[in-house]
Amino acid sequence: MTPRAGTMRLACMFSSILLFGAAGLLLFISLQDPTELAPRQLPGIKFSIRPQQPYNDLPPGSSQDGDLKAPTERVPGHLSSQAPRGSRLLVPDRPQAQLNVGSRLRPRQRRRRLLIKKMPAAAAIPANGSAGALARPAPWAPDSHWVTLHHSQQERKRVMREACAKYRASSSRRAVTPRHVSRIFVEDRHRVLYCEVPKAGCSNWKRVLMVLAGLASSTADIQHNTVHYGSALKRLDTFDRQGILHRLSTYTKMLFVREPFERLVSAFRDKFEHPNSYYHPVFGKAILARYRANASREALRTGSGVRFPEFVQYLLDVHRPVGMDIHWDHVSRLCSPCLIDYDFVGKFESMEDDANFFLSLIRAPRNLTFPQFKDRHSQEARTTAQIAHQYFTQLSALQRQRTYDFYYMDYLMFNYSKPFADLY
């Protein structure tokens, strides 16, 4: 064989190999699922800045006041339409559409979607959360003070969501029912939802909502019975399902909390150390009959004179002679913060700053501030940490520990310190 013929044979073999390789590559590409080759968007929420257009107000109570298909895409109208010129709102982008939605999912895609479903609540905005971030407060608010309060809000919500993700992982997948929103009051003009936590400033907050709604000109004009026994303010559970979901996804949701031991002592002092035509006969009589040995006939007849250790015995008894009451129930049960994504978490201990900051966020009238008066037992000192400590020293170490365990989720979610050094 000549050298020239050998060279041509090698060239032909090399060309054949190239042709077979190209044909194999084309065959491999043609057999692939297009969705496997498309660029993937990582799980999570991407935020961008874009102006928002206000949307038309709907009549309160209307059954057509919510688009259930995409409830998280709208920004509360009172924040977007009233935001000062130049202000910007953070709004989640719409997720990119998936290719070939109707096609059969491959195992890898199923695993990826399962992981997304199992992501902690802190990593994404729940379906019942408001789509827009809170707007910047009014121009008259000191900027550095606003930054401090804003960071405080971010930290409180982070702690709450992390606690929920760790201990209430299944809550984010549950559907909201009327029972979950039965303590939430609605103010439609400023698009506010307020979850009532008794003994954490709720009377004055309802006064503020009534002024915001135009039902009174001043908080000082509203009597205690009007606040608690009138029907001026609507509860969220009085709306139909569309109305509930619409408001949860577009209104600003807020709650105020209080150190649990202080809140418990405040409730006890209010309901059992003063004449009361409901709590004495309903709770007092049952508590005395069960937990006081040799109770007098007068005490059993009136239900008056319940002592704090007897009250705590009732609280911790799994077979209580009378049911739970909102004044000492857990905040986690009253407001369902692991199911409802609250936009604002205030604290009784910093009420003035938090309340007036919130009022500036929702563009409340400038002359409206949170009232400081105490309309019941006004001559009596408010329950402080020192007063609460005095009451809890009446208990044994075991009773204090069990009471702390009873309110453990409230201590954890709202980042309160242990009130006694011997608690664990």
From TrEMBL:
| Gene Ontology CC terms | Golgi membrane
Q: Please provide the record's keywords in A-Z order.
A: Carbohydrate metabolism, Glycoprotein, Golgi apparatus, Membrane, Signal-anchor, Transferase, Transmembrane, Transmembrane helix
One GO BP on record is: proteoglycan biosynthetic process
Q: Name one GO molecular function term.
A: sulfotransferase activity
Q: Which residues form a coiled coil?
A: none
The organism's place on the tree of life at top rank:
Eukaryota
Which Pfam family is an annotated match for this chain, by its short name? Sulfotransfer_2
Transmembrane helix listed as a keyword: yes
Is Transmembrane included in the keywords of this UniProt record? Answer: yes
Places the protein is found:
Golgi apparatus membrane
Q: What Enzyme Commission number does this protein have? A: 2.8.2.-
InterPro entries assigned? Carb_sulfotrans_8-10 (IPR018011), Sulfotransferase (IPR005331)
Positions of the UniProt region annotated as Disordered:
48-97
Q: Which portions of the chain have biased composition (kind: Basic and acidic residues)?
A: 66-76
Q: Which family does it belong to?
A: Belongs to the sulfotransferase 2 family.
The entry's protein name is Carbohydrate sulfotransferase
Q: What is the lineage of its organism?
A: Eukaryota, Metazoa, Chordata, Craniata, Vertebrata
